[in-house]
Amino acid sequence: MANAATKNEISDPFNVNYFVKGNSVFVECYIKDYSFSNQNQKHQTTVYVYMDDKKVKAVNTAAFIVKDVPVGPHQIRLVIHNNGKKVDLIKQFKVHISSTI
User: 21, 63, 85, 89: which could form a disulfide with 80 (CB 3.0–4.6 Å)?
Assistant: First the structure.
C-alpha cells in the first residue's frame, strides 16, 4: 500500500494510503479532528476526488474506491470539505493503471 502522506506524518492532520488493483484505486484517509459520521455534524467531512484536474466524485467515507480508471498515468487530488466549505487539507498522488482488468 502506498502512502501519500508527507515526511512529517506524526503532525500531519491528513494522511492517505492507497493502492491500485486492476483499473481501480483504493483509497483510505485519516483526518485528525474531522469525522465522516453523521452523528458529528460539527465536523461533517466530504472528500472531493479529482483525477487529472477533473472532479470524479465526492465521498463521505474515510475509505473509498475510484473505479474504471483509464489505462495510463494519472494525478489524483483529494480536497477536504467540512460542512460544505473547503478547508486547507489537500493531498495529491500519482497512479499508473496498466490494465483494465
Answer: 89
